[in-house]
Structure formats: C-alpha cells, structure tokens
Specification:
alpha+beta
Amino acid sequence: MLTMANIDEALKLFYLDAFRYQLNDKASILLAQIEKTSENVVGKKIVMALRYGRVGGIGNRSDDGTLPTPNARKTKQAEWDTKNIFARFQITEKAIAASRSREGAFAPLLQQEFEDCEKDTRLDLSRQVLGDGTGVLATASAAAHNNGVVTVTVDSTMYLAEGMLVDIRKSDGTQRHADCDEVEITAVLSDTQFTYAGTTNTPADTDIVVVAGNFGKELTGLDAVIASGTTLYGIDRSTPGNQWLDGRLKNIGGELRETDIQYAIDEVERTSGSEINFLLCSYGVRRAYQSLQTAMKQFANKMTLTGGWEALSYTGGKQTMALAADKYVKPGRMYCLDLSDWKMYQMADWDWMDRDGAILTRVVNKPAWEATLLKFCDLGCQRPKGQFLLYGIAEH
C-alpha cells in the first residue's frame, strides 16, 4: 500500500543523495571544482579572515645595524550572512489517490516531479554562481501592452525561459507596480524579447527582471567578487585603503590571443601571489580559443575534471590548466581563477525541510502535498585580487 510514510522514506533514502550529487557536482563545472566546507561558518554567518599586504621585518643591514622592524601582514575580518536556497515541488492529492493501492504506479510520477525540481534548481544554481548577488536576469529598454499581453524588450533573454516567475522592478530593486511582481513568462520571442500576461501597467526603461523574490538574496558569485568599488563581504571597497579587495579586469576589445590569457596569469601572480589554475568562458569564447589553436596548427587536449566534466587544456604559467565553457557565462568573457582561493561555505549539505518529522506536508487550502529542499550557504573568495576577468572578446 502506498502511504505517506513510505513516500517520505523513499524521498529520504533514494532521492536525497541523488539531489546532493546533482547539485554539488553536476550543476556547474565551476561549482564541482570548488571545495564545500562548514569551516568558518558560525551560526548563520560566514566569518573569514582576509590577509593582504607584505610581511615587514625583512631587509639588509650593516654588521652592527638595527634589525628590520617586524610588521605582520594586514588582516581584515569579513563577516556576512549565508544565503538561503529553497527547492520546492508539489503533488496533488488526486495523483496520490489514483496510485493509492499501487506503489509502482506512483513511483514514475514522484520521479518526474523530483527530476523537474532538481533540473531547474541545477540551472538556477549554475547561474547564481556566476552572478553579482542581485539576481538581475535582464534590463528592460522598452515595453508594450496589447490585449492583455505585455511584450518586454531587454538587453538579453539568455537567462529567461517560459514558465519562470519573475519580478520586474525599478533599477534600484524597489517595486515598480504590484502587478509587475511574480509574473509568469509566457513566451521568449527572441534574444531580446519576452512576454507575460499583464494589466495596463508595464515596465519602464532601465527596469530590471529578477527571479521572483530573489532581488539581493542570491549567491555572491564571480561578478560580485571580480569587481571594484562595491561592497563585498560587508567591506566597502570604495573606501580608501580597501582597494586590495578589488578584482582585476581587462577589456580585450577584439580577437582573443594567447598573450591575453598569459597577461592575466602573469599579472595575478605578480600582484597577489595567486596562481591561476582554471579558465571559464562563454561558448563563443571557447570557439574563439579553438579557432586560435587551429590557426596556430596546435591541438587543444581535453581534460577530465571532478564531476565527470570535460574541458580543453591551456598551458601557461607553472601548469597546464582547464579551459571550460558554461552556457551562463556572458558573451565575450573569460574568467581566470585560482580555485584554491574559493570555497562554498555551507551550514550543511542539501537536506529536506522536515523538522516536524514529515517530508511531504499539506499545502494550505489546496488538495496537494509539497516537499522542500534547502541549503544555507554562500561562495567565498580569499583573494579577489588573485582573480582576473578578460571581457570584450570577439565571439566565434
């Protein structure tokens, strides 16, 4: 007999490990390579000591001269809250009732709901890892209302898909209109247009599109770290004396050259002591690199990475490193990273929200049941100055 107890048992024993594996190792080629740890997580906060500068007390003196004055490297304490990520799916009472006497009939339905939830969580997590923490998916430039359908023109629809619930807000994240919150995307018409069903209120120029409820609550991704003048980990980088926390950027403004990559590797080692060991780019930039290798009559060997991911190889600096592509990297970009500087700080791994003893719980005022997975975590980087972003690369 199919009961709520054995459904809970199946979710706990058979589905949880699969969910953890998919989100830790299969969500993103970058995330799969980053260490996950509860180290430095105190309560709900991440506390990380950032070291910078050079050690004093080193110098040359005469035979009877005064020894150099000791002066330890500087330390800045970073402290910020973990981010809260939830993945939730529902099953109707009717579906359960239809399979009440046949457990095998219910299994495919449960499997489908779970896999849909897992796949979409994986996509969203891979996007957040690259983002700036605000959750901005697109910026509007125009909108038109026609017979209950709002067509919005944006800079890019690369992060948008039918069925997504999004908020359309002012550029500072404040509410535009109540009926522009939690709207469902009905169609992605092109690389620059999407539609939703709406009233007469429409977005304005420079309004932003974010996942519903997510503004300012997403992971501290690559774009948040490799920036300058913004606040990172509670430290204001615009304050004089905090520029050591800025990332490094360079506008290529054309075709990719191996010397561009080597420049990033050399500059990071020269200025911060980090050693670039991972290159992450857009699909078009990966093709540009492959085209470059072909033109030079060279062959880029493949590497197999953690999680079974495959990448091209690049040899520069002190080692051969992976050159990988991610569909959510913005066009024309290549991130040059020292993965030893990065960690995913987490209070614990993904788990069911079952503090009341039940994984499946009643949906209030609905003939349905729901289950919620959660994780409290955030990305942290010890040396933002040891990371480099090359942008403006001509795509192939």
